[in-house]
Amino acid sequence: MLASLLIVFREVLEIALVVMCIMAATKGITNRSKFILGGMGAGLIGAGLIAAFTSTIAGAMAGTGQEIMNAGILFTAVIMLTWHVVWMSSHGKALATKIKEVGESIVSGKTPLYVLGTMAGLAVLREGSEIVLFMHGLAAGGLAMSSLMLGAVVGLLIGAAFGIAL
Asked: Which partner from 11, 99, 101, 129 sits 20 to 30 angstroms from 58, CA to CA?
């Protein structure tokens, strides 16, 4: 349970941080929340499709193919996590600057509002995909589904609470 709680908490907190930066950079823009929430919803749908696709592949590859797929998912998750840590340590400040520039560009009318939704949607899709991959890896490792889901729900609630508090 703790593993799934920590995974979901961390990913939800990352989503909250990106959305918070977008909201701060676009404060005062009419209808910004509609576009940001719409983008987040699209990102959730995309992550759900990835989850459905992952399950379909896993079901189609019975026997040793299942182990190969599980190893591939875990390997992909490790690569994504490593890349994220390295990339954020060197590009975190540049990302915040870029979000601010996009906000200023939207305020000035140079950039359409749907860019806000795209930015929020991609953040949710990326982090949601990581959740799917990590959770599938935990399930393949033998973690009970009830423990996996309880941890995920608690991690979601704590991550959302931290995000709102920020």
From this structure: 11
| Structure tokens that stand for 109 in this block | 């009318």
**Can you read off the two tokens belonging to residue 35?**
């576009």
0.85 surpassed by pTM: no
Residues in the chain: 166
The amino acid that residue 164 corresponds to is I
Helix then strand then coil, in percent of the chain rounded to 5, is 90, 0, 10
Distances (CA, A) of 5 to 43, 61, 113, 149: 21, 28, 34, 9
Q: How far, in Å, CA of 126 to CA of 128, rounded?
A: 5
- Whether residue 24 contacts residue 106, with contact meaning beta carbons closer than 8 Å, is answered with no
Whole-number Cα distances in Å, 107 to 25, 35, 100, 156:
9, 14, 11, 32
